[in-house]
Fold each of these.
Amino acid sequence: MWPNREETDRLLDDARKGDVGAVDKLLAEFRDPLRRVIDLRLDPAIARRVDASDIVQDVLLEANQRLTDYLKKPDMPFHLWLRHLAQDRIIDTHRRHRLAQRRSVDREQAIARPAWADESSISLVAQLIDTEATPTSEAIRQELQHKLSTAIDQLSDDDREIILMRHHEALSNQETAAALNLTEAAASMRYLRALRRLRTVLVPDGGEPADGV
């Protein structure tokens, strides 16, 4: 889901040379990926009140303000740096809205995270429940999306986060390890354990789901 790495590096090099147009293009390339990162993590109740696009805009504004410092000392790949800024904004948004309007927000009916309703979600469920092929029936797709959403909500924050990073953001194990400040071996083990726990929730008895999906 992230822009091409070579193109990103080229734009970063141009930005170092003072090319304002390169900065604008660079940040524009990451608008949609950042929106996906935020959609995946924004609490559904708060998403009713806060437009994810506003959070994306805040992240890009902060990135623009801090880009010079980043270019002087790029301690991590650019996309990981941006998602780190996004994570901080998400945490701040949750904190502010939960503290300020806890009762009204918590009473609102939750809505499904739209980012789960995609092909990668279906592929993940199909893999975990050992289906021979990704289902194409719309009814089956909707059922699998519902099962996945329910199962994800039952995972711990750590398990949920690493599945989002590896499967929905398509981050490599190396990138995930860097983002979580883990060794690559530890990140790989955490991911495998999260997948096992997710499968246990999806298929509690270790076999196929009772309804045959």
Amino acid sequence: MTSYNVAESNVRKTWLLLTVFLILIIGVGWIFSYVLESPGILYFAVGFSVFMSFSSYWYSDKIVLSLAGAKLIKKSDNPALYRIVENLCITAGLPFPKIYIINESQPNAFATGRDKKHAVVAVTQGLLDKLEKSELEGVIAHELSHIKNKDMLLQTMVVVLVGVIALASNMFLRIGFYGRGRRDSRGGAGAILAILGIVSAILAPIAANLIKLAISRKREFLADANGALLTRYPEGLARALEKIAQDPNPLRKANSATAHLYISNPFRGKQAGSWIARLYSTHPPTEERIAALMGMKV
């Protein structure tokens, strides 16, 4: 599959994600509006879901950068990093992205932005301090491959939409409990619908997270392969992944909502061993990624 095919596939997945998001929110809103005999709840659900869908498209990258504590830098702040990004962008045929630095000792990186003209590459200070030039080039090439494949929009929107679904579901549950008296007056049918509404509100966030996890891990393998082809040196990225995975430093602002954006799972120690971290892990095993890279012929 070519990068063009992957990019087109990710555009379709983005629209599918938006559609499923709208259906989840509106569906739960309709159930509660029927149970509580309040059309206003449905109108609110429709308006809220539409507003957040468009907001996630336009502003999800800013939200992610804020969550990561990333700061925009200029060329004068790190000329060497700028030269690496410039050279790789020329080779990949991509516009130069904005570059952000995250003041964290753990080596890691991610890409975000709604399209290649509004792309961002964010790297931690630890990545700059601990990787050799060829390894850093491999990581940057990986992130630029995400941009070229249009992975970053899909990945970034998931962060916002999953959080919004959890928030909306919690709100609907509260509305349902507050409206219990009116619901009980409708008899058996109302009680059944009420139970259905509560179950839907509980399951909606789970369904949203399954959507998040269903965004295939093959994205990372493909970005690894494309990045290696871009630098013509798979060993550089392979060594970088090994160093990143072995680094013991925690990412202080790591959370399950944004973990899938990073080139490697940002959780360390007890964080990585917790059931929540394992549940939300969207990265293939590092050993498999390294083996795939070392088996490449470029």
Amino acid sequence: MAQAPFIAGGSGGLHLDEAVFGEPFHGPLVHEAVRSEMSAHRRGTASTKTRAEVDMTGAKAWRQKGTGRARAGALSVPQRTGGGVAFGPKPRGYTVKVNRKALRRALRAALSVHAERGSIGALDPAAFETPSTKAAVDALESFAGDGGVLVVLSDGEETCAKSFRNIADVTVTHVEQVGVGDVIGAARLLVSEAALGRLTEKAVAK
């Protein structure tokens, strides 16, 4: 894992706690955590009507005998136009439970990936006294690497957030809302000092 205590980026450096950024990667555990986070965003409101719920007459299509055709019962059966849906979706919850210790370990593993490949950088929100997309673009140009950037900020850093939020391939999120999927899915990670402290707390909390 990362040997250097500081990873340069933006306008400063970050002290990386080895207890958090030295975690070995656990693929199945990270997958489980990301799956849980993605499932939690599903509303689960998809719904279809069964043959008992469709608004249709209960009369037979035609009489039982004497027509030369096969017997036909209710018109609400799934194989008929306008009939109910067989085995269709109904409102349900998609919550997948993951133990808190497992979530913290998955977060440490995701953060350690960025530390290992040097794709984590420091961001100084104080440099953005007023919102400036140009200043944010200039800061990103000095950040080595390619691919999407996840900017993690804390309370009181809204001006910095406004500077980055309209740049393509840049996602800005609050440290309390960042998840394992956000971290592992980003090619590069930019964090403020306050956000890093909170991320460290979340990753090692008892």
